[in-house]
Model the fold of this input.
Amino acid sequence: MLDEGLRRHARGADVVIGVVDHQDRAPIECRAAKFESVTAHLDSGGVGSDEVAVDAIIARRPSVVLVDDMAHLVNGDNEHGRWRDIERIRDAGIDVITTVNVESLQSLGDVVSSITGVHPVGSVPDSVVRDADQIELVDMSPEALRRRLAHGNVYPPEHVDALLANYFRPENLAALRQLALLWVADDVEDRLQDYTADRGITEAWEVRERVVVALTGTAGDALVRRASRIAGRSSAQLIGVHVVSESGAAGPDLEMQRRLVVELGGTYREVAGDDVAQALARFAQVEHATQLVLGAGRASTRRSWLARPTIVASMLQRLGNVDIHVISTEAPSPRGRSHRPPRRPSQPITAKLRFLAWTVCLAGLPVLTFVLTRLRTHISVGTALLLDLTVVIAVAALGGMLPGLAASVFAFGLTNWFLTPPLHTLTVRDAENVVELAVFITVTMVVSLLVDRAARRSREAARARAEAGALARSAATLVGSHDPLPELLEQLRATFSLEAASVLERQGTGWWPTVTVGHDELLTPEAGDAIDLSADGSVRLVVSAGALSPDQLEVLRAFADQLSLALQARVLRADSAKADVLAETNALRAALLQAVSHDLRTPLASIKASATGLLQTGITFTDQDRVDLLVNIDVAADRLDRMVRNLLDMSRLQSGAVVLSTAPVALEDVVAAALTDVPHADRRTIVSVPDSLPLVMADAALLERALANVISNAVAWSPPDAPVRIEAGLIGRSIDVRVIDRGPGVPLALRDAMFLPFQRLGDRSNDTGAGLGLAIAKGFIEAMGARLDVDDTPGGGLTMSFRLPVEAELAGIT
Amino acid sequence: MSRILVVDDEVQIRKALDVNLRTWGYDIDLVASGEEALSSAAAHKPDLVLLDLGLPGIDGLDVIRGLRGWSDVPIIVLSAREGDPDKVAALDAGADDYVTKPFSISELMARVRASLRRHNPTPEDPIVETPDFTIDLANRRVSRDGVFVHLTPTEWAIVEYLARNAGRLVTQRQLLQRVWGPQYENEANYLRVHFAAIRRKLEPIPAQPRYFLTEPSIGHRFEPLSTRS
Done:
C-alpha cells in the first residue's frame, strides 16, 4: 500500500495517509513519514487507536488516501467497520488505497474460523471489496511469511513465538493462501466477463444462475454463507427463502439469516404452504432456480424437516433440472436446541390421521359390535346405535368425510345384521328400530360432512394466515423504504408462488404497467386475474390467471390496501418532487428579481442622484463638488456595466451558449487583464505568476472573466491590510492557479451553496455584486474542462484553485 | 439651517446626497450603518433623517423604532425596491415619507422641504386653501367656489386627518385606525368607497385626482397645491 502510495506520489498525485498501522516498525514508519497524515486519534477505554478522520480528509480533498485494514472495527463497534468510512471517502470522489486480510472477507469468515480455530474480528462484505476498481493480491509463500515474522518484521518480537506456533502454522497459512487465491481468481473472472460484455462480445446466451437456499431459522449463519459461496462461484443470484408453514414455527436465527442474505447481496423471501417440500419446490420452479441448497442438521435430525431423506428425494423428483446441495450444518446452538415448535393448534388431516381413522373404523366398529352382541339382553338397539355414533364421529373427526361415511355405512350394516331382530338378516322387524337406524345413518353422514368441512376450512384459514403473515411482515420491513411498491409486489409474487404480477393503470383506453414483476409480463387486466386497487377501477393488480384459489384471492384483496398505500405514496412523492422543483425555481426567480432590482438600482440611484443634482437650476456647485458628482456617475456606470456583463455571462452559461475557443495563452497576461476589473487591484493583490511558466490551454476571455470574479470575491472578503495572493505553479503537465485570501473563510457546509447564483453569504453587503461572480467563475472554469476547488487557507481564509493543462508541445519538454 | 442625517451604505449615494444637500445649505452628517445612525442622531440631534432601508447590521426598520423611542424627527425612507412590504412597515413604524431609488434630487429636495415644514409648523392655520376648494378645520366644513359641500362624518374625518397631515404619506392602516378605530385596520376596501365619494365631491376631475392621491397598497396623501410654500 505504502509502495503504491509512493509510486503515485512520485507521479505528482496528492497522497495523504488516513491510517497506517505501523506497529512501531521502523521501515514502515520511515516510509509513512513521507506523506502528510490526516488521522483522528480516538481514545476509548484507555486504549487509544488511530482512526480515519473522514470529514477532515474530505475537506482536505487529496487525490489518494492510504488506509490500512478496512475490516478494522472503529471503537470495537461491530456495526462500524472501517470500510464504512472508506465508502464515505470514496463517495466524496477521493481514491482510497486500502488493505484487507483474507479472513476478513465476510463470505469466508466461517471457513477461516474452522481452519484456524479463531473467529475473525470484523468483516467486510464481499460486495464492497469486489466493488474496488482494482484488486491486487499481496501473495507470499507461507514459509516466506513465517521468516518475515521470525525476523520481527510484522509483529513485535515478544509475540512472535506464540504466533508462529498458533495462528501462523504453515498449514493454516497454506489454507488461507488458497482461499485468497481462489477468491481473487473469481474476481478476475468477473472482471474478464465485464470486459467481454463491455466490448459486446456475446457468447452463447448464458442463463443467469439462481441459487435458492431454504432457511428454517436454525443452524446459524453457516448455511447462508455456504450458499453464498456456491452462488459466488457461478456469479449466481442468491435467494433465501423461508417457508411459513402452519405446523412449524421459524427458528430463532431467522432474522439473522435474513439480514445476512441481504448483506451478502441476495434477496430474501417468505412463502406459505403446509407442505414444506411442495412449497419449496414450487418456489424453486417459479424463481427458475438452478441450484437449491438445503441444510441437514446433525443433532436435530428427528425434528428438522430438511434432514429427512424423503424430502430430499421428493425434491429431486419434483425438481429434475435443479441441482440440490444438502449441506451438513453444525448442531444448532444450545439456544436453538432448547427450541421446540409450539403445539399445533389445529391439525389438518394428514395421511397419518387418515390411516388412524380407517383403523378405528375397520377394527373398532367390529369390536364394539361384538361387545354389544354379548350385552344384547341388557341394552336396547337405540343405546347400541348411540355408542356406534360416538365411534363414527371419532372416525370422521380423525379422517374426514370418506372414512366418516364409510364408518357410518359400516356401523349401520353391523348393527342391522347383529343387533336388530331378526338377527343376521338385513330386514328389520320393529318400526322403532327402522326409525333408529334411519336417524343413525342420517346423523352420522351429516356429522362426517360437517367435520370434513371444518377441517378443510381450518386448513385454508391456516394457510391464509401464514400468507397474510408473510406479506404483513414484509410490508412492515418496507415501511421506511423509499419506493416500497416493486419490493412489495415481488414479495407478493413469491408468497403466492405466482409466475408474474403487475400493477396496471388505465391511461385513456389502454393500460399502462406501473410495476411488473416475474417472468411473464401481464400488460392488460384480461391477461390474468385482476383486483381493483382504486375505487374507480383505474388501477388494478393483475396476477397470473388461475394460479390462486378463491381464498387466496381474498387474502390478496386484503393486501391490496397495502399496495394502494404504496401506490399513493408513489404519486405523492412524484408530486412533492415536482412541487420541490417548482418551489426551487420560484425561489430562484424571486432571488433573481430581488438581486437584480437591488444591484442594478443601486448604481442607477447614484447616477440619477448625481445627474439630477447637476441639472438643478438655481444653485451653483463648487468645482470640486461638480467633479465629485461626475466621478460618482462614472464609477456607478462601471459598476452597472460589470453587473450587466455578469448577468449576460450567467444567461450564456445557463442557456448553454458558451462557445470555447481554446488556444495557448500566457497565464500572466490573463491575470494582468483580469486585475484591471478588480477595484484597487494594485493595493489589494499580490501576484506571483512567473512568466517562465509554459503556456496554458484555455479560452483567454473566459479565463479572464473567471479569474476577475474569483479575485474580486477574494478582495471583497479580505480585510484591507491582507492582500489577496494570486499564485501559479507547474504541477506535472498542468498549471495550478491559486487565489488565496485571508478573509473569514467559508464553512464546509456552505461551500456548495456559495457557487449558486444569487447566493451571497452575508446578504446586503454592497461590495460583492449579486452573488453571480462565483457562479460564473465556476461555470466558465468547468466549461474549460477544469474544476474550481475550494480549500481553507492554512492560518485562516479561503483558497480557490483550479488546474489548466499546459500546451501540448511544451508538455513533452517539461 | 437644518441639519440632516444621511444613512446609506452606498458610498456613491452618500457622496451625491452630501454634495447636493450641502449646496442647498443644509448641515450634513453622513453614516453608513444603523448603529452609527442611532449614535449620530443622539449626538447631533438632526432635524431630518434620510434613511436607506437595506443596511448591513441593524436594519433600517430597527433604526426607525430606535429613533421613535425618543424623537419625533421626520424620517424619509430611501428604498431600492418597489412594492416592498418593508416600505409600509417603515411608514407604520413611524417614518414620515419614502422615496424609491433611483430618485431625482429635485423630487427628494421637495420631500425634504415638505417634511421640514410640517415639522416646524407656522402657528396652526385653521383654513387650508387650494385652488379648487377650501377646508375650514375650525368650523368643520368645506366650500367649493363659495358653496358649502356636504360631507358625511366619515368623509370629513378622512379629509380632516389628511389636511392636518398635508403633503405627508399616511398609510392605509394609520387612516383606518384613526377614522374607524383599531379593530378596522385591515379593512382597506372601506377607504376605496369613501375616497371615491370625496373625489366626486371635491376633485375637478375625479378620475385624475390632483389633491387626494392614493399610492396603491401603501397609503394616501393630500396635496394642497397651495401657492404658499
Remarks:
- The mean pLDDT of chain A is 78.
